Amino acid sequence: MINLFKLGIILSDTSRSRAYLQTLVNKKIVPKIIVIMVNSNQSLIGKPKRMIQTPFIELKYNNDQWSFNPNESIETTLNKSNLEYVKLKVDNINDPKVISFLTNLEIDNLIYSGAGGIILKKELFSLGINFIHSHGGFLPKYQGSTCNYFSIIEENIISASVILMNEKIDDGPIIHVIKLSPNFDKTKIDHYYDPLIRAIALVKAFEINPNFNELKRKKSYQNSMYFVIHPVLKHIAILK
Amino acid sequence: MYKYTSKNLLLNPEKYFYTTFEGQKFIDSYYESRNSFIKNIKIENQDLSSWIEQLEIKNNDKVISTGYVLLNYLKTNKKNDFINILFKKFEVSKKIHFSYDSNSFRPVQKKDNILDYILFGITLIKLYEETKFLGYVNSLLKICDIIISQNPISIVKYAPALKIIIEKELELVNQL
Fold it and tell me: Are A141 and A229 contacting, i.e. CB atoms less than 8 angstroms apart?
């Protein structure tokens, strides 16, 4: 079972991080080490700007009600729960300061929720830490970017897959996968439902597969790498 | 109005990150824009395979000549592994370069040759028909945006292929 005393989380203040933190804290899965990445101006990296119109996101999954407030900053969540955290002035996780900081920690697993589009440096994988990532898409079939729009078009499903990261994109051992029908306002996938579904998958990974054993891949796919969805396909997915 | 072809996308590549949802009117504007482009192509109908057959592109053994590799696949059905690499490279950079290094696959000649984009578009159609992998339609839409965003004078000589690519793209999108 994952030892919460040896679990960490590294965050930028994105809607995804807000969903992760609120959901984990609600389910009493509290990492021992919490690191927030801030840039040199002390402003939070990836701070969401367009949250105000959507105060609260709710979703039913497996008879449970899940929710998060996208307007609540990660520092507010941490302060409300009296959780200690460290701020690192870095541009992203590949900054030498992060590598140096992680080297000195006694953690086995680190949930990664940095800004999107960053590929982790090789050095990070030599630290003896599992980097846990919740991917927005059904793995191994949908790797890459904006996968849930493609899976809505093809199968009318939305999904998240928890993996241990390796040097390739969305290729590491799969720990847990959830999928559901997108019976909600699909115009709010990007900053709201996708983060919440990823957060649910994370919690479920801890609950259902606490030793983080690798799931057997049922099938391999010749073509599975998706790239940023074209707006025409995005509209088709949302209007479906 | 369909905005993704209003500026020259070879000079100003479009990344398509977090595009906004505009409702059914956006889809309508897409169809309108594509149909208007087809309507403005003044040519007799020509078969795509005969258009491909009459094309000749020289190979350069020292590099990967993009046009040659794509045309060879379209003519012979022999798929060079580089086409998979080109698919990924295009999606990352939104560029098809004239030639690439055979070992590192880095661009050698970076000039934009619209014929390479057209051949890549036809290749994507063929790959989608063979595999039904939606990622190829996704790239095709981006390729068609690039083509349509060009000055019509610079692409008019490829009119037969352009008409067929856009019609095929519309047909594939319509099936989704």
Answer: no
How far apart are the C-alpha atoms of A47 and A57, rounded to whole Å? 18
Give SS3 for A38: strand
Task: Give the start-to-end residue ranges of the domains of chain A.
Answer: 4-239
Q: Tell whether B25 is within 8 A of chain A (Cβ).
A: no
Q: What mean pLDDT is reported for chain B? A: 93
Q: Give the ipTM.
A: 0.95
Q: Is B171 on the interface with A (CB under 8 A)?
A: no
Q: Do A226 and B138 touch (CB under 8 A)?
A: yes
Beta carbons of A228 and B16 less than 8 Å apart: yes
The CATH architecture that domain A4-239 belongs to is 3-Layer(aba) Sandwich (3.40)
Percent of chain A with pLDDT over 70: 92
Give dist(CA A178, CA A137) in Å, integer: 9
pLDDT band at B21 (very low <50, low <70, confident <90, very high): very high
Extract the tokens encoding B125: 């159609």
Do the chains contact at B134 and A225, CB–CB below 8 Å?
A: no
User: In this complex, is the C-beta atom of B88 within 8 Å of any C-beta atom belonging to chain A?
Assistant: yes
Shortest Cα distance, chain B CAs vs residue A229, angstroms: 6
Confidence (pLDDT) at A45? 47
CA distance B147 to B37: 10
Q: What are phi and psi of A41, to 5 degrees?
A: -90, 10
A223 vs B: CB within 8 A: yes
pLDDT of res. A52:
54
Q: What average pLDDT does range B99-114 have in this prediction?
A: 92
A150 to B138: CB separation less than 8 angstroms, yes or no = yes
User: Which of B22, B24, B141 faces A233 most closely, judged by CB atoms?
Assistant: B141
Q: What pLDDT band is residue A192 in, cutting at 50, 70 and 90?
A: very high
Helical ranges in chain B per DSSP H: 24-39, 48-53, 66-76, 82-93, 114-131, 134-148, 152-155, 159-175
